Amino acid sequence: MDVLVVGCTEVRTLLSMRACIDVMSRTFEVLASGDVVQPLRSIMWLPNKVGGLGVMPGYQGGEVKDPDGTTHAGIVGIKVVTVFPGNESTPYESHQGSVMLFEPQHGRPLAIIDAGEITTIRTAAVSAVATRHLARKEAASLAILGSGTQAFSHVQAMLEVRPIRRLRVWSRNGDNARRLIRRASEKLPALANVDVETCSDAADAVRDADIVCTTTGAREPVLLGEWLSPGTHINAVGACIPVARELDSAAVTNARLFVDWRDSALHEAGDLLTPMRAGAIDASHIQADLAEVVTAQHPGRTSDDDVTLFKSLGIAVEDIAAAWFVYSQAQSRHLGTMLEMGGGRDAHA
Questions:
Q1: Which of 76, 77, 101, 136 has its CA 20 to 30 Å from the CA of residue 220?
Q2: CATH of domain 136-311
Q3: pLDDT tens-digit profile of 238-265?
């Protein structure tokens, strides 16, 4: 049988940020319905801890159709990705791997799609969905902490959902921050009317910001609660294991906290688990899953003075939904490469 293989360049062509934001919004509607299956991710760390292999299986329900009209009762998928935090100083991304899609009636493999590019785009798209529902409508000042792949994609995503007029970027490496601004200015026409600058101090970048996105590889806090102004919205993205955090306890305890999925947040989010271990908060500090906010089961922000925090970890159904969109678009536009793989009985004839 034929399996479609879609590489990173084709994913960038097929999955625009705007389209991915819409896909993620619909995905959270399905998540709110409960028609999903997604075990907690599993990470196998290498003996020297230089990196690990992460596995994220899942099922998203609902009827979906191929461009040729074939109907599937849901989507089965898995993301297999390596996580090598030390790749910052190498030519390689920290997350590399693939998303595999299967149809749920007979388990036929449908596609193998580059996971690095999907992760880059959908992570920022989910932050955009959170920002759309949690940030003040008039939010116009953006602070980005970090200067890597997610920093760029978050600039792009925030421009899609709020009228950004000021952008401040901080990175532990000032040269990287300046490179990020140059790249963003070249690639994102919407920045032409934005006041953009780098900051040598994270506190200066965050001061009076309406939206703050933390996209670093830090294991210790780079964002302190005392820097935040009333009304700020935070997307905390970089830390994704229990022993790492980007926010200090004050930033978490003084904010209204929302997560992409409660179960994963309570097992994996160092930003949340650290103040919990100290007794500063408990699990009830989570106001709601983002799905509850998207479907208006929870009001989200309740006043202009609320500091809102979206803690992002990434969940399987996000990757599966983004991959399905790429798969459908690739079929419609005749992109990708078909490879013959086993699975049919005639293969053993």
A1: 136
A2: 3.40.50.720
A3: 988 899 999 999 999 999 999 999 999 9
